[in-house]
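Narrative of activities, Objective 1.

The group set out to show that a structural description can be obtained from nothing but a protein's sequence at a throughput compatible with the screening campaign. Below is one input-output pair from the validation batch, recorded exactly as produced.
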Amino acid sequence: MSRVLITAFGPYGSWVENSSWLALVELTRSLPSAPEVTTRLYPVDLAAVRERLLQDLPGHDYAIHLGQAPGSTSVQLESIGVNVKAASVEDLDQPQPLVSDGPIAYQSRLPLAAWAGRLREADIPARVSYHAGTYLCNATLYLTHFLCEKHGWPVRATFIHLPLTVSQAIHTTSAHQPPSMPSAMAADALQLILQQLGD
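Output recorded for this entry:
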């Protein structure tokens, strides 16, 4: 039976909740019989994430990392992780590499286009994205590929950005309420993806 690692992030900045963790909690209420799933909550801290990946990746066939994307209107299946680290907006003009001797980028070997199509067939808005940003979400995707290549772990991975939950959107202080997705729908999207891995 395939083994899948699914990670999500905790709160950060002004967000007291993270839609990725809320979706993962919802998913655990009705996990499929296959594949075998391991769930993890990661702090929003690059050094800690790297250490956790070293601990959690071995022994898994797949890694699906989750994060929230305020302003997003759909489930975004991230295809590419780049070797760029920008700790803040001020760092964007002169970003540093995540790994000094690492390749420029890695591309997911998972069938993301097929997954996006399957989600849309189920009336869940979804698309493949080719840029996971330059912050921790991108770093998680890149480091997963780098560490697996370095240690010979045969793990196939992607990062999935999820919209805010409805409760998060309602309680924002912005002038316009941002787009959102119920946690149950996000969990349904993850269920459908797990079904593909369990077939």
